[in-house]
Amino acid sequence: MKKVSLRASFAIIMALLVIVGLVIYIFRFVKDGEKWALYFDESTSNCTYTLMDRDGTVLAKMGGGSRTYADDANIRAACYQLVGDFGGNIGTGALQSFSRQLSGYNIFTGIEEQDDIDLKLTVDADLNVKAYEALNGRSGAVLVANYKTGEILCMVSSPSIDPSKPPSKLPDGAYINRCISSSFTPGSIFKLITLTAAIENIDNLYQRTFTCNGSIDVKGVTVTCTGHHGNQTIEQALANSCNCVFGTLALEMGADTLGDYADMLGLTSRHKLDNITTAAGKYDRDKSGSASLAWSGIGQYNDLVCPYSMLRVVSAIANNGTLVEPSLLGVSETKSTLLKSSTASKISSMMNYNVTYKYGKSTFPGLNISGKTGTAEVGNGQASHGWFVGFLNDEEHPYAFVVLVEHGGSGLGSAGAVANTVLHAAVK
Fold it and tell me: Which of 79, 89, 208, 257 has a 20 to 30 Å separation from 39 between CA atoms?
């Protein structure tokens, strides 16, 4: 009797192990089947799979046992985080993320006998090279998208490497696409979120005169400004990037209102860029009414923003409040209302005033820009992050942009200069 019981127990255990193994296999098959099929097919088939930019420049090619990248070393480095590599070191790269589109894989039939497959991305490889060169070895991110169609024209993260000749020692963060997979202290670009909340929640905002004497006292703690701006309208306060005004507005509206707008505008959420998951930002709701709340409305305290999330915000502002969801695969069909049309129009006008009367038209010759800089303090004796975000008021070139230069110092001096170079190349 004991032998029968022992055999039955053994049989049950074996059956359970078979079931567990089958479940694991099915899970791996669903998750990785296309990679297995593509790996086998590209090694044994004469079919080639080619990843290209919008103009047909080859970014990567595989098939017949061969795997190659772009011929131009500059393109290989400038597009590295965008394309990824055949080793799968960058999980958000196109080779990984779009393998199904690239291979024509079907979960039931695998990869059927077919002609060569070409997959075009929306990016311009030459524009990526311009952006990468403009960053000039500094860590940072550059994004440019058509806010009418959602097409991403430029996506560059630095530092980078040449995947065909990887160095023995990688630069810090070379496998990270800073455009979509990291979040950073935003500094004054966050004032666009505070401004959005103020426009929709403070009735007399446009009738008020704000006074800046260089600092405000919040429960015994001093919140400093970058200057003594005197009496200002809200439009002038944005152009002056006045900490006193935006800190005051944050205190008036409260942490919940600001937090709700950071959530509503998508800064604290992960997003889907096609099927790529992006990094979430952060807004801590300091409800004490302390200096931390004031600093949070200025883009400091614990605020964090992913460059991609900021691209969505400025794209919606440029497009009368309607967000055409960005895409790397073509014209986007996904649209949503991110903010009211009337609010977007007011912010757009102020951002244009900001560039024209604060930065000066000569700073961006030939470009009609609405924008906002940010100089984000990061502490520990390190130089500030430099940001410049905005869009072109140009029917032929409806481009939104985000530029971040890590530890670049002045937003206008570092990120603004990069944006100027990239946008001039984009409109040409």
Answer: 79
